[in-house]
Amino acid sequence: MLVEVAGEPFFSHQLRLLKKSGLTHVVLCVGHLGEMIADRYGDGAKWGVQIDYSFDGPNLLGTGGALIRALPKLGDAFYVLYGDSYLPIDYRDVGRAFLVSGKLGLMTVFENREAYDASNVWFEDGRIRLYSKKEKPLQMRHIDYGLGLFRAAAFAGCPRNTVVDLTAVQADLCARGELAGYEVKERFYEIGSPAGLNELDQLLRKRSAGA
Questions:
Q1: Beta strands 85-86 and 105-111: pairing type?
Q2: Total tally of structural domains belonging to the chain
Q3: What CA–CA distance (Å, rounded) separates 73 from 67?
Q4: What's the mean pLDDT when you consider all of the chain?
Q5: Beta strands 50-55 and 25-30: pairing type?
Q6: Pairing mode, if any, of strands 142-151 and 77-81?
């Protein structure tokens, strides 16, 4: 999150995007060296947001385990965004869709057709029919976009203080008919690869220059 992109740490770009979208309470799930982020951004007051931190502790807990540990800080309903993703979409509209759905979770999806990574979602008629990184039916043309919403109750049956994979939680919700889908048309950006980092750097520099 402290990797430099377009002249400043990536998290600064994320914060700016989230605040613009009306999301002003951020809970960071952090592990090793997470103190470096806390030292730099503090409580978020300088950014006009509130930042809380949830540390994994001595053992890594995985994406789902980290969220479970952070539940007391997250409240009943919350967004989940990966720390290496930059998603320039309408967060408010996604939130409204989640509340209307009445489901325990919502996954944003993008019609990927293997363009950016392996497609892992069968999304049809506005519904997520299957989410799997193992099964590969021909109908899988979408990919998990990287923004999810959850009710705290989605994690009710999960163990505490141990490794839990968020994808397993989402797959279970899907199988139970508790995972809503929201199709996004704007592609996602990430800094998890040199190519992705360079691509986002160019995009943000162009936007900063007004191009």
A1: unpaired
A2: 1
A3: 10
A4: 90
A5: parallel
A6: antiparallel
Pairing mode, strands 105-111 and 179-184: parallel
Which residues share a beta bridge with 143? Answer: 110
Task: Say if residue 35's pLDDT is above 70.
Answer: yes
| Helix residue spans in the chain (DSSP H) | 10-20, 34-41, 62-74, 91-101, 166-175, 194-208
Distance CA(12)–CA(48), nearest Å, equals: 12
Compute the distance between CA of residue 157 and CA of residue 152 in angstroms, rounded to an integer. 11
- Backbone φ and ψ of 134, nearest 5°: -115, -50
The 10s digit of each residue's pLDDT in 64-94 is 999 999 999 999 999 999 888 999 999 999 9
CA 11 – CA 30 distance, rounded (Å): 13
Q: CATH no. for residue 18?
A: 3.90.550.10
Q: Which two tokens stand for residue 48?
A: 């006009």
Give me the amino acid identity at 23. L
Domain holding 22, by residue range, is: 4-208
In this prediction the pTM is 0.90
Give the tokens for residue 1: 């999150």
